[in-house]
Model the fold of this input.
Amino acid sequence: MLSTSTSRRRICWGVAALVFVAVPANAGGPKPNPDTATSSHCSSAQYHQFDFWLGDWDVFEADKRVARVEVDRVLDGCALRERYNDEDGKQGQSLSIYDAGAKAWRQTWFTSRGEFLAIKGGLESGAMVLAGAFVNADGPDKLVRGTWTPDGNDVRETAITSTDEGKTWQPWFDLKFRPRAASTKANDINALKELDTEYQAAVKINDVATMDRLLADDFTLVTGSGKVYSKSDLLEEARSGRVQYEHQEDAEQTARVWGDTAVVTARLWEKGTDNGQPFDKTVWFSDTYVRTPNGWRYVFGQSSLAPPKP
Done:
């Protein structure tokens, strides 16, 4: 895992050595649909050393949500299955099981981008250590050492990396797993308002990365003059820096939710220059969002000029 993007963060599972702190089964967050019938072959304590990881988690870095992870029991309770979805659209799964013959834990990790890793390890001084080495075709080989530590109902995961065979180590990431809150209309409305405010702030400073993350790939904007813009049009405009904003703030913001679809409306004040020519206008807009496995995405926008003042 890397601190610069969740997609890159999760690559470390496919490339490195990981360390997990073993804790009692009830130390983690809420457990999503565990198998109630555990095989008699997998009932010993060794098979439950990863139980702290069971849960439905929102994953945060510096208080910013970067992924959702679900871990549950499969195969009559003998294995743990991880399902991972990050904010960049990357998906991954892992299977972890205690190998009684080898007296070691084994894990396989694979992603929607063709990454694969098989790692093994065991308890060392109260911590679960899973080790592996990544032979990097695009850079130096590396080792990664990560630690998962329960913190109340949360789990904190940190990692360090080494490119000199473990002689020196550098910080890699610091993540917090928090039990996923039940989706409610009030939560959705607050989240949507925050997302729409975040998007307008990104437009104001031509923040291409944030705009790219929030806009759906098939996004469309229709303006009051009848012009139609795609996601690529808006990103290209932001990259060019042609439009410079002094103000890009909304007011009278409302959000309405219907299942996995929502509409945010607000009055937006825009003031700045376009190719050096000043503009100062107020528009009303309606932004449509759709819930995806990776969170809400902005799919359609429509704006119209506010009526003239009497």
In short: The chain has a mean pLDDT of 80. The longest helix spans residues 185-204. Helices lie at 6-11, 185-204, 208-214, 231-240.
